[in-house]
Predict the 3D structure of the following.
Amino acid sequence: MSSPILHIQNAYNQYLTIEDGQGTHLQQCLAETQEFKTQLRKLKAHLNKHILETKSLESNGGEVDKTVQEKLTKRRILIQDKLNKSYKQWDHSIKKHTKKSKQGLIKFNTLGLSMFQTFNIDDIYNNKISDKHRTELQGAIQSHISRYCLSDIPVQDTAGLLKYLQNVYNISPEICSDFIRMGQILFDLTHCNYESCWDWAYNEQANNHSHVIQTLRYKLYIVKGMLMTKTHPVPDVCQYFSDKIPKAAFSNKDLQYGEDAAFILTQLIVHDNISNFQQNYETFVDACKETFTQEYCSLHNLPNESPLSLVIMSGILSSQFFMKYAQIKSSAHIGWTTSNELPFDVDLPSSLTHFHPVFICPVLKEETTDENPPYSLACHHVISKKALDKLSKNGTVSFKCPYCPVQSTISKTELVRFVML
Amino acid sequence: MDHPDSYNGKSGFKYFSSFMSLNESSFTIPYSLLNANLKQHEIFVEQETNKMKLMLKDINDMMISGTIDGEEQALVELNALIKNVNTFEKELHIKVDKEGQLLKRIKHRTAFYNEMNNNYLKGDNISIIDWYQKYTNLLIADYLIRNCTLEQQQRVVEETHDKDTCNPGVLFLKQQHMEDLLDTDILIRANTISTALTGEHDLNPLMEWIQHNKQMLAKKRSPLEFKANFQRYIELLLRFDLGGAIHCLQTCLFTYIGDHFDEVTGACGLLVYMERCVEQVTYNEKILQDEGETCDIHYNEHKSGTVFSNQDVAYRYFFNRSPPMDYSQSINSKNPINAANVQHIFNAKNLEKYTTLLDQNSWLKLNELFLDEYYSMYKIPKNDPLLIYISMGISAMKTKECLHNHPSIDPRYNVLEHYSTADKLENQCPVCSEYFAPLSEKLPYAHHTESKLFENPVMLPSGNVFDSAILKLLAKTLRKKGIVKLNRNEVIDPIKKIVYNESDFITMYPT
């Protein structure tokens, strides 16, 4: 099935394309009205002229020549005809475009919107979050804003920023203070000011975090070099790359430093400037920001991704499973008796499931818990305590491992704990 | 962060279509607004063309006379026609601008959702994660707009000095350059009416909205209009504006007697029993407040301090006239007052029908009803989408290990190379995080059918099972940095802090 978004795109393009060219029918209505107004003004001028001429002829006294009279009548009829014709044309055109506009919207609905599989998102909200958790929820939101969005705020002096966050987003200094400096440096990077980031990297390097900061400093060298190409001649830029930058940068393959520098220099030497400068520059600055953020969070023991964004990612990825369940539930009229566990397996990527080990007892097919922990058998296969009790009849008999021929007794088993490093 | 989606085989987001169906309102709202815009345009065209047709007829009549006076009059009328066309043009301009804005929304939204799919197609993990962050921001903005209070609005205005942007959600969207991705006008309208109802007990914005959507509400047989009028009536009664209340009853509520007979008759009764009901409600509230404490309730003692010596007195108090003969005969009026009887006849139970109409939560209920109607009209989710995704997200991630305070790893050992989350010793499980842990407690666990462990599991004599490669890497790094004195082939159990030899490793076979 092709994606509904493609249908929307097609429907949108069709709505914008009319027989006479680009634009919408409403825009065409406007153009026609403007044209009609110009016509009316012209006709008004003609009529005015006609009246003045008639008046002047009459004021001259005496009889008006028959041919002149005929000419005047002809002109009056002409103005009248033109007026009627213009109006008719405008009226027809306006109504036609209005009708076509309506047809366009109907088409937009048929070609685009009807392609959506109708589903009410409220139907998958089975496990409601109680209102009494609003404070925690707001804390998660505030912490997310502090992590990602401080550099987008117009006020950047520390006191002002703290006040702004408190007033606008109700974020207390306890939540955001760890992120303030990071936000300010990111703001500077966005506004082509690298000094604060450079100083931060320099200070952290002095504080024995040399490995971490190296990458960031090299990225800053590249961005600086790139900016130089705008103001300095090519030899100066080459000089900068060869003299100012520590040689170690070129030998570290992980940094791709040599490749980036070579890219800039080749462009300069061949074209005398960097093609797609803005795009390339933004890519380098984004890489710089990404590295800085990771290093800052790592050094200050802050989460690299906000828990909220991870949870939302998990929510989006799992939504189709919830949808499928809701559909089955409503069509088959079935329920699920276990309320403390989801009735379906949600297949999430490892990046969202690596936080805790999950061990499913191969005998009972249940996840082990503190009450039912995993036990290692003599053969080093692992089963849960409940399964062990069952197989050993509460430790009274020896039993065969469910996976291999080795016999075990309860005394040969050992409580184990899986630890994710 | 490693790969966000294991199904990514450069084939786009596998569940893109179903995800898009959850975001259908992103396109249906601008579509319905385009429709409304066109409908207004159609009515306007019809009105104006009819008017202009008449003007043109007049001009023709005047010109056909062939006199100079007629022509001069035609000129005046032509001028008026031009003025009319001018007004028409201005109005059309507004409609075209509105259409342009709505089309821009559709265009930006198409691009936004396409971006997600394209990131998957390209297999660009950083962009994929960036996109999810943007979507999270969008959900946050939606939450902030919907839940903005009057107090919050005032604080924002104080900070920004911009009365037009007093909602933090709108400000947030602007800062994130995502204005076109959310129908803020629709959400703000709902928030304005909602805060007026709950914060200021002001019915005017709601009544205005009802007037605009009368047809739709009637079609759905929605009780909203009745409930709003009923609330107005109650407010008038609470202010003891009996004249206003009776007028409201006559003009607004009686029309609903067919569908809401009980409530309308109750409303009539309230005219009589209002004073007693208010006392009763206050009295009930007092009882609720005192709940938990031993409370000896005497129904013949009211908040007003009235104590009835006998039932005749009580009857006189309530009905302002002598009790009927049969009443006096049926009850031994000479007996001292029987509290239970009085309660039965006059107070709590008899008034219950009326006191329920004075429910203190009626404003909240009215607000709920309004939001239901409003959101269903635009097919907007009734619940905050942010909460829906959080609820699903937590449940999908919540393992039986979550929310347990198992002995953690010594922070001194947090020395493995960063960037790869798998190497992080400190657990960053979002479910166990400070803010999500309390609200995760009540949510269900994820269902797993397969174990999710690690490569090369080895057990140390301590009973802890680790990934052998990472355990060795940890030992190597700790030795290199001089944090722990370890010989070659020695590792440390980072939980029990005991040093073991690699020969102690027991290879495990968890299936």
